[in-house]
Amino acid sequence: MALVLLCGFMPLSVQATEETRQQIRKAEQQREETEGKLDETEEKLEGLNEQHSSLQGALSTLNTELTQVSNNLNDLEEQIADKEEEIDDLEKQIAQVEEELAEAIALKDEQYATMKKQIQFTYERSSNLYMELFFSSGSLSDFLNKNEYVEQLSAYQKKVLDEYKAAQAAMEQKQEELELAKKEQEQNREELGEFKVKVVAEQGRVSGLVSQTASNLNATANQISEAEAAALAYEQQLKEQEEELSALRAKLAEEMRMAELAAQSSWRDISEVSFAEGDRYLLANLIYCEAGGESYSGQVAVGSVVINRVLSSVYPDTVTGVIYQSGQFSPVASGRLALALAEGRATSSCYQAADEVMGGTTNVGGCVYFRTPVDGINPKYRIGGHIFY
Fold this sequence. Notes:
It is a single chain. By secondary structure, this protein is mainly α. Helices cover 80% and strands 2% of the residues. It has helices at 2-9, 18-136, 140-264, 279-291, 296-311, 319-323, 330-334, 336-343, 348-358, and strands at 370-371, 381-383, 386-388. Strands 1-3-2 form a 3-stranded antiparallel sheet, covered by helices on one side. A hairpin with a 2-residue loop joins strand 2 and strand 3 (386-388). Helix 4 (279-291) crosses helix 5, helix 4 crosses helix 8 (336-343) and helix 4 (279-291) packs across helix 9 (348-358). It is rod-shaped, with a radius of gyration of 62 Å. The two termini are 18 Å apart. Mean pLDDT is 80; it is low at 1-16.
């Protein structure tokens, strides 16, 4: 009894139970993983925003280029219109030249026919012409008048020849003008075709760039939306994990308070405890779940913690109440104890340990907690794979 009281009033390390510590470590680990995912998502979101800004800049540049292209297209369309007008004017000129050429050919043919008749007349009668003039003249004056007629006729023939040559030259000039006009027209048509090809190519190039950039911009916007949604989800998850950690820390504080209170509370003697039917079976199976792979001393130590709580005024005063107190023993929460009870898994050594501690034996003094070793806890006892405090 003195040993129990001495241990009860000795300063105990006030720490969380095994289950609470594990829950806190797991929650902190999950929080760290979520924070890592959030950081990755935020980095991805930052990169996507930079890409989105870059695409917006590219689209702005393309819009500027599109304006320039529109101006270029307007210039090309004006050039096309001018060229088409030039072609129409040239068509009219060609028609006029062709008409003038037809007139020149007709005039040439007419002059040629006239000149041909004159030549024929001169050739046929030139040898007797002057003799006929001389003998037919009544006087010298009449002869001179007729001679003047002959000279006029000769001059006229020369004039006809000159007009024929002029008509021939005019016709040839018109033909040259027509050939040049047709060549110029052909060149104009080729240039017009090139202009139209340029228009189509320019439209296609800019349209393709704008379409591709707009598509990339939309895809990036979708990725940003997805990343923002993921970030919000991670933030919500972090919030929930922080709330869970707060709850676990509150539980830890309560357990620390209870441990300190237990150290300072009053204790019953084992002779004052009335064990119920089934307590031995329940305690033996709990010992099996918590220390089935430990040495016999380790099994006794675990059983001692349960009985110490029964003896303490801070905890329930029955074996069943202590074992099934909410959040105290992990095999209860995990279902392992229920399975062990259903199958009767407790070994003979577990039963022996239960009998010994229910008889008042303890090998851990007044300790009311045990767990696997961890830094930061100075245990009163270390037995097998557990520390006791």
